Amino acid sequence: MIPRILHYCFGMSRDFGGRPWSLMHYVGLQSAIDRIAPSRVHFYCEHEPRGPWWSLTRDRVNVIPIKAPRSIYGNPVVHYAHRADIVRLEKLIEYGGIYLDADVCVHRSFDDLLSHPVVLAQERADSDRGLCNAVILAEPGARFLLRWHAEYQSFRSRGKDDFWIEHSVQAPSRLARQFPDELCVLPQTAFYWPSWDPEGIRLMFESTERLALTGSYATHLWESMTWERYLKDLVPGRVRAIDSNFHRWARPYLEALPDDYGAPSSLERARRRLRSAIGRQIPPGLKGRLKQMLAP
What angle (nearest 5°) sits at the alpha carbon of residue 274, between those of residues 271 and 275? Predict the structure, then answer.
């Protein structure tokens, strides 16, 4: 039986991958708490978030400082996203529960999924791209997760290269074909619809047509592709002003907040302008040190 424990991984890099804890992350986590009703929420971080949206979040989670793995089975793990991939597997093997990426918005209870040993979903309906690891449900010590973890003996990615999704998406898909009795594979609609293609992003963030979510437990918001245009510096007032699916999903969690809550301060805007100027003009060898000095 899968326990009703939520797991989040965040802050595996000092700059949070350029996407600090935001309105969207707060909404996603709160939607999970409201609809899944977890017994605990474990929040693993090497660098704890900060800022107004984290102030609203911190009391809702059990913050667990960790040192993200720099290697696995002797293979270097360079990118923060791959470090988070490993953390989620290891914590689910240890505790069992429900792992969610921080950009997942939950629409309904997961209770009818908890009797399976492992639950994953297809990333795309129209391709063999694989099974996405943004949402994973598993019982403690699940055999399928142990097999998946062992696949990292061949880990070879150094970042966003040809092997970027080899262990996070392709390996579980291959293992699911080999060991179908060890997990439940759901269709894309369960967690990953709309997709990350332009039409899917439009349906979430621009379309006024209400999406039929009868087959959906949650929606992945694909923040790596939607952050700059739709999510960066988002404030409640803008959520209230836009009639789209995402903005309607988010509104109930923002009712008590003023329109400008979480807006960047004038000092933060000045820091950003200076960091941008550094990026354009300073020799590469000095950029890292100067950006650290300008960090909040």
Answer: 85
Please state, in angstroms and as integers, the Cα–Cα distance from residue 147 to each residue in 65, 139, 180, following that order: 26, 14, 13
Rounded CA gap, 203 and 12, in Å?
30
Mean pLDDT of the chain: 92
What crossing angle do the helices spanning 284-294 and 266-281 adopt, rounded to 10°?
170
Q: How many residues does the chain have?
A: 296
Domain boundaries, the chain: 5-262, 264-296
Assigned token pair, 160: 């966003």
- What pLDDT digit, counting tens, does each position of 2-33 carry? 999 999 999 999 999 999 999 999 999 999 99
Query: Measured on CA atoms in the order 147, 149, 152, 153, is the torsion positive or negative?
Result: negative
Could you tell me the fold of the domain covering 5-262? Answer: Spore Coat Polysaccharide Biosynthesis Protein SpsA; Chain A (3.90.550)
Q: 169: closest CA among 142, 195, 135? A: 135
